[in-house]
Amino acid sequence: MKLLYFAWMRERMGRAEEDLALPPGIATVGALADWLRGRDAAGAAAFAQPGVVRAAVNQEFAQPSDPVHDGDEVAFFPPVTGG
Amino acid sequence: MATVRVQAEPFDPGAEVAALLAGRTDVGGLGCFIGTVRGGDTVAMTLEHYPGMTLRALQAIAQQAEAQWELLGCTVIHRHGRLLPGDPIVLVLATSPHRQAALDATAFLIDWLKTRAPFWKQEERADGTAAWVDARASDDAAAARW
Lengths: 83, 146
What we know:
Chain A is α+β, with helices and mostly antiparallel strands. Chain A has one domain: Ubiquitin-like (UB roll), CATH 3.10.20. Chain A contains three helices and five strands; from the N terminus they run βαβααβββ. By secondary structure, chain B is α+β, with helices and mostly antiparallel strands. Chain B has a single domain (3-144), classed as Molybdopterin biosynthesis MoaE subunit (Aldehyde Oxidoreductase, domain 3, Alpha-Beta Complex). The longest helix of chain B has 18 residues, at 51-68. The interface between A and B is medium-sized, with 17 and 27 residues.
């Protein structure tokens, strides 16, 4: 799967994107976020406040309970501030 | 029917208004909103976006407006990149046979765009620091009224 990070999530992760094999047992957006938080210091910093992080799966806004599959494009970002 | 664009370049509001009105005699009113970079402590504003998703999100918002009001046309243009105080960021136009629909749809489009389009603003301040702009609860409340 492809992971994308934007704004301060990108800065805290230290990268704009990465390719990842879906970790075993991970089936939802929320579980993937938890896994990334536990992976390393960058993930811990980026996902320190899980309630603040928003997500999209295949370029549609997604909730923590929404499913993720290998091959998906999953993006994590702060609440949007356009306009 | 909606015209939706995401671009680094400035836009020409007069040309966009003219394009919505050209050759039409059924328009009764046109609503317009232009968002600009507010200065003060901000010396520049950089807008980041999610290229693959942005256009699709803006089109979905425009479709929602077209479903909710009797619109003859609408235009949403949002810029990205580094902008300076006074620079235009976003243009929203809506035409309708009736003014209330044009004005309401314009307000809906900008309110929804602020909470549903994947853009993020980073401010550069006079003291040399840069900070990501926080989302505001008042924006969520404005979007929820529709």
